[in-house]
Each structure stands twice: as C-alpha cells, then as structure tokens.
Amino acid sequence: MAKNNVGPKRLVVGAHYGLKDWMAQRLTAVVMAVYTFTLLISFLTGNNFSYEGWSHLFSQQWFKLFSLVTFAGLYYHAWVGMRDIWMDYIKPVGVRLTLQALTILWLIGCAAWTVQILWSV
C-alpha cells in the first residue's frame, strides 16, 4: 500500500509551519507603521528641526521605549523573513544553519547598537 502524503494526514517537516509567525509579522508591521506615523506627525507639527529638537523628542522616556519596542519588532520581523528565505532557497543544511546563525548574530548586534544609541540621548 502506498503511503498517502496529502491532506490532513500529510507529514509536515521543518520549522514554524503555523499561524504564530504570520501573526507576528503582521503585528510588528502594524507597530512599525504606527511608529512611522508618530514620527511623521512629530516632524510635520514640530517647529524645531535642529539637533536640539530631535534630541528632545528622543530624550523622552516614552519615546525611547516606543522606539525600542519598534526596533525589537523590526528585528523579529527581519528574522522571520530571513529565516524563511534561508529555509526556502538554501538546501545544504550546513550552509543554511551558518547563514541563520550569522543573521541572528547580526540582528543581536543591531539590537545592542539600538539600545546604546537610544539611551545615549
């Protein structure tokens, strides 16, 4: 008897076949859109376009936290997208795992740099 590999009994192998990552990317996209809208409103309604004006905006605790949450969402959004690209198009396991590890290291470095920049203002 031939093994039936279609329909509800189908064997799905791999990582993250589900709704969680799809929803996470949509949620992080919404957070990034709200942040962009907030920056745009701040820019259009502001009258101090100097370094001091932008420094004042980014020195407020709520805006630092909003920025940090947005950038954390951006990095997670990027991770999900890049992980899916590596899984879909890079077939040799060793190369794929190396690229995934390098992507994680790069994103962690970017996150650390983001924290350093936000809390140096």
From TrEMBL:
Essential cofactor(s): heme
Domain of life: Bacteria
Annotated TM spans: 27-45, 65-85, 97-119
Presence of keyword Membrane: yes
Localization per record: Cell inner membrane
Role noted for this protein: Membrane-anchoring subunit of succinate dehydrogenase (SDH).
Record-linked PANTHER family: SUCCINATE DEHYDROGENASE HYDROPHOBIC MEMBRANE ANCHOR SUBUNIT
Record keywords, A-Z: Cell inner membrane, Cell membrane, Electron transport, Heme, Iron, Membrane, Metal-binding, Transmembrane, Transmembrane helix, Transport, Tricarboxylic acid cycle
This protein's record includes keyword Iron: yes
Protein name: Succinate dehydrogenase hydrophobic membrane anchor subunit
Pathway where this protein functions: Carbohydrate metabolism; tricarboxylic acid cycle
Pfam families linked: Sdh_cyt
Lineage, top ranks: Bacteria, Pseudomonadati, Pseudomonadota, Betaproteobacteria, Burkholderiales
Organism for this UniProt entry: Massilia violaceinigra
Membrane topology: Multi-pass membrane protein
